Amino acid sequence: MNYEFIIGFSRQALETMLLVSLPVLGLSMLVGLLISIFQSVTQIQEMTITFVPKVVVTFLALLLFGSWMLTKLADLLRQVILSIPTLMG
Questions:
Q1: How far is CA 9 from CA 2, 12, 52, in A?
Q2: How confident is the model over 74-82, as a mean pLDDT?
Q3: What are the tens digits of pLDDT across the range 32-61?
Q4: Residue 28, in any domain of the structure
Q5: Which range marks the domain in which residue 52 is found?
Q6: pLDDT digits (tens, 9 = 90+) for 12-21
Q7: Please, what sign has the CA dihedral across residues 61, 63, 68, 72?
Q8: Which string of DSSP letters, residue by residue, matches the chain?
Q9: Closest CA to 72 of 23, 26, 19
Q10: Which residue, among 13, 15, 28, has the nearest Cα to 83 in the 3D structure?
Q11: Distance, CA of 80 to CA of 6 (rounded, Å)
Q12: What pLDDT sits at residue 1?
């Protein structure tokens, strides 16, 4: 096992993590931003207003992108399992 393989695998794992988390975090951040703009325009400063829409959007994003996310993670796991013989030898 060499350092180039470890660095390449770590890079691929981090890229997969960012790619898989992007849809849920991006949509949640967008909804939070829109609600913050709405609150600043209407001068409603209630902290609980942002909670329910973010939870709903997160749930919907997981429903929409869940199978794609699992496919990406399964591909990474398959690559790890297939590379085990090369790591041992």
A1: 11, 5, 38
A2: 94
A3: 999 999 988 998 888 788 889 999 999 999
A4: no
A5: 47-89
A6: 999 999 999 9
A7: positive
A8: --HHHHHHHHHHHHHHHHHHHHHHHHHHHHHHHHHHHHHHHHT---GGGGHHHHHHHHHHHHHHHHHHHHHHHHHHHHHHHHTHHHHH-
A9: 19
A10: 13
A11: 11
A12: 65
Domain assignment present for residue 9? The answer is no
Q: How many residues does the chain have?
A: 89
Q: How far apart are CA 2 and CA 9, in angstroms?
A: 11
Q: Is residue 63 part of a domain?
A: yes
In the numeric block, which tokens belong to residue 25?
């975090």
* Cα–Cα dist 23/45, whole Å: 27
Number of domains in the chain: 1
In the numeric block, which tokens belong to residue 65? 């992108």
Check whether 27 has a pLDDT greater than 90. Answer: yes
Confirm whether 70 is domain-assigned: yes
